[in-house]
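Weekly modeling sync, notes
Attendees: S.R. (lead), two postdocs, one rotation student

Agenda item 3: backlog of single-chain predictions. S.R. asked that every request posted to the team notebook include the full sequence so nobody has to chase files. The rotation student volunteered to paste the first one in as an example of the format we agreed on. Action items at the bottom.

Example entry:
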Amino acid sequence: MSGFDKVVSSYEEAMAGLTDDMTIIAGGFGLCGIPEGCIKQIKSMGVKGLTIVSNNCGVDGFGLGILLEDRQIKKMIASYVGENALFEKQLLSGELEVELTPQGTLAEKMRSGGAGIPAFYTATGYGTPVGDGKESRVFNGKHYILEESVVGDFAIVKGWKADRFGNVIYRKTAQNFNPLAATAGKITVVEVEEIVEPGELDPAQIHTPGIYVDRLIQGTFEKRIEQRTVRAK
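Predicted structure, as returned to the notebook:
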């Protein structure tokens, strides 16, 4: 990798520098648009004490859920955790610290972190356990609580297509939290299905500009369906 070229040849190179006790922001929603290869690499590295910021923690045996198997995650900041029995077990036993965060607040935590905004006020969560212990203020007669933004030591992101300069396009609903996560990492790693040469992408279609991307790798993806429902014949 040199100059504007962000492409790396291996996941080892993509995740180089990740160590114990770091914070990782991960794109994805359920199992849609998750950075599968980066997660598997984190698993193989054996790093522990991680704080993971993501909409959810995958499922048992897939996605971020595989990082629970060897207790690599110390703290999870997430919105939805209902598909993972091991997650529930570790939460109830006190092995895993969990900060449940309203989904819009979580999105804004990432966006603000990427924009250099340290905190923001939101009405969501005021008067509930979400707001306990947080600073509150009244604006125009309405109560708001102060939420801190998040910045990760690493951000891991799944895109559809990118050029070698790291300009990324996401595909349909697989976009989800990925563009927000991409802005909020000190080191942002993006894995995509296809890498093209600069100039081949329509500039108007680019969702994440290459300025946010540090490392880019082409991967292969299982794209597992979380809950498959079919119509009876």
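Discussion: group reviewed the output briefly. Helices lie at 11-14, 36-45, 85-93, 103-115, 178-183.
Action items: rotation student to repeat for the remaining queue; S.R. to check formatting next week.
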